Amino acid sequence: MVVSAFNGFGGSMKKSPIIIPILVLLIILFIPYRIEAQIASKKALTLDASKKIASAGEAEAIKNKLTVVIAIVDDGGNLVYLQKMDNTQIGSIDIAIQKAKTAISFKRSTKTYEERVLKEGKNHLLGIHNIMPVEGGLPLIVEGQYIGAIGVSGGSSEQDGIVAKAAVDALPQQ
Q1: Do 9 and 61 sit in the same domain of this protein?
Q2: Model pTM?
């Protein structure tokens, strides 16, 4: 069988018996590959997991006679869950959120930045937009994947760090 190719103006350019089978073969070979290459599998933070994490943090705060705000963000820094314990100062709301955003944005504890500023004199870190160099923010990691972060504010920075650590330790690993 001979297939004609057209030049788009109604005239025949030349006869090509092989062009259509080649095109069909290319489509069959490359479309499934391209779809597989574009889809990634990753862990995601759920509201239910966020509530469990916050609950563990709240229990630690109560044990230490603290009132705190606990903020949990997803891997994009978007707020998933916020919990303000009774009688916690309202200023801690924004601080907790910013600690969580800093922890996920830089994939490390906010204590790292606090130590760099206080102990190493790295004051230039204070000029970085949206960084909170105060202990109390930790990334949430499951099976090596960063799925979000927690930020705690209301106590001293050390106390906030203790509450955040207790919350992270309650993170479901599956």
Answers
A1: no
A2: 0.76
